[in-house]
Amino acid sequence: MEPKRIKKDLTRALRLLNPRDRVMLIGTTDRPQLAEIKGLCRMYERILLVPRPDYASRYVLWKHMIEARGAQVTQSLDISALAKVSDGYTTGHIFQATHSVLNERRLLQLSKRPLVASEFLGHLAKLDPVYREEEESLKEWYFKTPLGKKSLKFMKDQEAEEAKLAKEKKRK
Questions:
Q1: Using alpha carbons only, what angle is made at residue 167 by residues 163 and 168, rounded to the nearest 5 degrees?
Q2: CATH number of the domain enclosing 83
């Protein structure tokens, strides 16, 4: 659906809400650059950038999602390899891969044929990863939003403080 199409309806619906209605509006997109920043900031109080998960997060995600589907993580399943191979994929991609591989039929076969990492690779290959360039352009866009500007200022202040402490440490 086109963002411009729903903009009028969504704005109208938001005007009808009172603060006591306790409604939280959450919007997600993988292409926020296509929207007007001013319009988004008027519509949403906060705009958050959810980065791609790092290796440790992917490791925990794979382990948790596999166990949540009812499968046990055995030595035949190399979660470390899955975490390395899935670099660039989002949490949603990992969720999709685990759900497509661990269907009811496969869960029934686990006692005879344990899970191996290669079973998930075919499903990951069908999905488009988030490339570093794409992530960098998202970060650039995010730092133009009010919350992103505050975050950038905080990071710069923190770096300046660390540099100051390092200089003082060298003097001693």
A1: 120
A2: 1.10.8
How many Å apart are CA 94 and CA 49, to the nearest integer?
A: 19
Residue 101 in any domain: the answer is yes
Helices within 32-145 (DSSP H only): 37-43, 55-68, 79-85, 91-101, 104-109, 118-125, 132-142
Whether residue 16 is contained in a domain is answered as yes
List pLDDT tens digits, range 117-136: 999 999 999 999 988 899 89
- C-alpha dihedral sign at 105, 108, 111, 116: positive
88-113 in b/e burial notation, b at 16+ Cβ within 10 A?
Answer: bbbeebbebbbeebbeeeeeeeeeee
